[in-house]
């Protein structure tokens, strides 16, 4: 390994390697997200069929992979947290879903499909890498897509062009406290302070420079998704 290689197994901000965090994750997300509706939208955006092979990175407790699996042939679900993967594997066994392979892998290295895939998904995870390493990650993802393959990338991204970022962040965190509780608001404040979310225009530029054409994009607060095609 090169001496400058980023160690992506070090959790930045929230410690998703902690068993307690992994066990509480689904309940915490359930108060602010509709994961079934998310998976529906992702499957449609990616144009998944029964023949599709999908790689999810930063799969966490596996809700998206588990929802996509019945719609495609094979899902590879990678994460760097053994605790999150353990929850995901347990749910796959409980739900009798057999076409997901889970493995210890990150954006930069580790568990990945054996051959290029039709579709790649990543949600709320790329911000764990600083920008240089985000780009390196997107280069790797692009190389793992078949020609015409699609990437659905959703993450906490800062909007460009605001005059008063502190006011927007205060509104955002305040609304979250009302909806998801103080713990969620504190985790979000920590995210903004300690993690590596970047600007929407930086991420879009990175995608384009990796040879991916952005075909759709939408923002909801600080969450932005990009649909990109190789
Ligand atoms: C906020 S959770 C998101 C989980 C899931 N994608 C979701 O939408 O609920 C972030 C996940 O990214 C994982 N993660 C952090 N850095 C990573 C990296 N470099 N490569 C892959 N996964 C990473 C964490 O272990 C954690 O499971």
Attribute tags:
230 residues, alpha/beta, 7-stranded mixed sheet, 8 helices, binds S-adenosylmethionine
Strand content: 15-25%
| Quaternary organisation | single chain
Query: How far is it from the N-terminal to the C-terminal residue, by CA?
Result: 29 Å
Q: Quickly count the helices.
A: 8
Tell me the CATH superfamily: Vaccinia Virus protein VP39
Q: Give the number of DSSP strands.
A: 7
Assigned CATH class: Alpha Beta
* CATH-level-2 architecture: 3-Layer(aba) Sandwich
> In angstroms, what is the radius of gyration?
17 Å
Structural classification: alpha/beta
Please give the order of strands in the largest beta sheet: 3-2-1-4-5-7-6
Determine the fraction of residues in helical runs and give it as a percent range: 40-55%
Quick one: biggest sheet? 7 strands, mixed
Q: What would you call the shape? A: globular
Ligands in the model, by name, code or SMILES, are: S-adenosylmethionine
Low confidence ranges: none
Task: Give the topology.
Layout: H1 19-30, H2 35-46, E1 53-57, H3 63-68, E2 74-79, H4 82-94, E3 100-104, E4 117-123, H5 131-143, E5 145-156, H6 165-180, H7 182-194, H8 200-209, E6 213-220, E7 223-229
Parallel strand pairs: 1-2, 1-4, 2-3, 4-5
Antiparallel strand pairs: 5-7, 6-7
Helix pairs in contact: 6-7
Summarize the structure.
With 230 residues, the protein is α/β, with parallel strands linked by helices.
Could you explain how this protein is built, in words?
By secondary structure, the protein is α/β, with parallel strands linked by helices. It has one domain: Vaccinia Virus protein VP39 (Rossmann fold, 3-Layer(aba) Sandwich), CATH 3.40.50.150. It is 41% helix and 22% strand. The chain has eight helices and seven strands. The chain has helices spanning 19-30, 35-46, 63-68, 82-94, 131-143, 165-180, 182-194, 200-209, and strands spanning 53-57, 74-79, 100-104, 117-123, 145-156, 213-220, 223-229. A seven-stranded mixed β-sheet has the order 3-2-1-4-5-7-6, sandwiched between helices. α6 (165-180) runs antiparallel to α7 (182-194). The protein is globular, with a radius of gyration of 17 Å. The chain binds S-adenosylmethionine. S-adenosylmethionine (SAM) is lined by residues 8, 16, 29, 57-60, 79-81, 84, 106-107, 123-125, 128-129.
């Amino acid at each position: 390994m090169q001496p400058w290689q980023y160690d992506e197994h070090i959790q930045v901000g929230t410690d998703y390697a902690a068993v307690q965090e992994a066990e509480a994750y689904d309940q915490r997300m359930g108060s602010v997200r509709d994961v079934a509706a998310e998976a529906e939208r992702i499957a449609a955006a990616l144009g998944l069929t029964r023949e599709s092979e999908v790689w999810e990175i930063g799969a966490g407790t596996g809700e998206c992979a588990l929802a996509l699996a019945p719609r495609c042939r094979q899902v590879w679900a990678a994460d760097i947290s053994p605790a999150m993967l353990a929850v995901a594997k347990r749910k796959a066994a409980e739900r009798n879903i057999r076409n997901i392979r889970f493995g210890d892998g990150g954006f930069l290295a580790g568990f990945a499909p054996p051959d290029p895939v039709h579709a790649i998904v990543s949600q709320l995870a790329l911000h764990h890498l600083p920008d240089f390493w985000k780009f390196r990650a997107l280069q790797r993802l692009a190389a793992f897509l078949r020609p015409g393959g699609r990437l659905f990338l959703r993450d906490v991204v800062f909007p460009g062009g605001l005059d008063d970022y502190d006011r927007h962040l205060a509104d955002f965190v305040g609304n979250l406290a009302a909806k998801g509780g103080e713990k969620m608001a504190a985790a979000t404040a920590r995210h903004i302070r300690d993690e590596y979310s970047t600007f929407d225009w930086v991420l879009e530029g990175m995608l384009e420079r990796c040879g991916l054409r952005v075909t759709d994009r939408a923002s909801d607060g600080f969450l932005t998704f990009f649909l990109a095609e190789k």
